[in-house]
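Section 3.1: Structural characterization of target chains.
Under the original work plan, the team committed to producing a structural model for every single-chain target entering the pipeline before any wet-lab resources were allocated. The record below documents one such target. The sequence was received from the expression subgroup and is listed exactly as submitted; it comprises 73 residues.
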Amino acid sequence: MTLRLYTLRVHIQIAKIFRKKLDLIDTQGYNIKEAVSEVQRLRANWEDKLVSMIEMELITSYEQLKMIVKKLK
């Protein structure tokens, strides 16, 4: 498997985990525009944290990445 294909698979798996986690957000009391905005803000926050951790080499494997993504709040 090429590095590019592996990287694509990692992105897809992380996106699936994000989707599952974001579906758990309780949007009761919000209108649709506010709910979508909150989900986008939260996802951007998570992505920023993960990119920083990867750049600082705090995350060094796919297994670590999955574990940390599951713990994001």
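Residues 4 and 18 are 21 Å apart (CA to CA).
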